[in-house]
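Quick start: what a row looks like.
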Amino acid sequence: MSVLTASYKPNKLTVFTAMAAAIAITSGCQSLKTGSATAQPTPIQGQNTAQPQKLESFNITGKIGVTTPANDNTGTQGGSAFYAWGQEDDRFAIELIGALGIGKTNIEYNGQTATLVSEKTGTLTADDPETLLKKATGWQAPISQMPYWISGRPAPSDSEPQLDAQNRLISSVNGDWRASFTYSGADKLPSKISAVQPQGNKVVMTINH
């Protein structure tokens, strides 16, 4: 069973088997090899035809961890979840298990409206997935940029993208998010994405393509 099929519909998603696989795979693969560059990172100038194209559809699994900065009332907080993510064009569906303090959670986006359903919050909606996630959990994550970053290329709104000696994206900036990318061996698609904000928000996502 896959997260998305040819008859994918944004409002219907079954990912229990994929999530079980995510837990099994990720539990056994907590350490990821980091591709090492032998030369200084290269900035991308304009449209780089050697960069991979954005994946129009994919099914991935892995683990995501989120950290928020300390405030006047609490210290630094964090949470993690196993996930299964299915993407089809601009639509996606994500299921989270161990979901950052709100239980099993489904997030869906149909290109216009984001919907979140969890055992704790019930059903919530918002215009974009970032607003929805913050509304439900208080966490911040650059979800809209992730389909590009998962494809190993900068999002259209990114700045300062840098390449390694193998012409792979290793860092990029989007607003106040700075993302870095880890690759396993000679793979062209990243196996881990880390994104941080100066104020202390951090997202780390491992990826099983």
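That is the whole record. Confidence is low (pLDDT under 50) at residues 1-39. The two ends are 15 Å apart (CA to CA).
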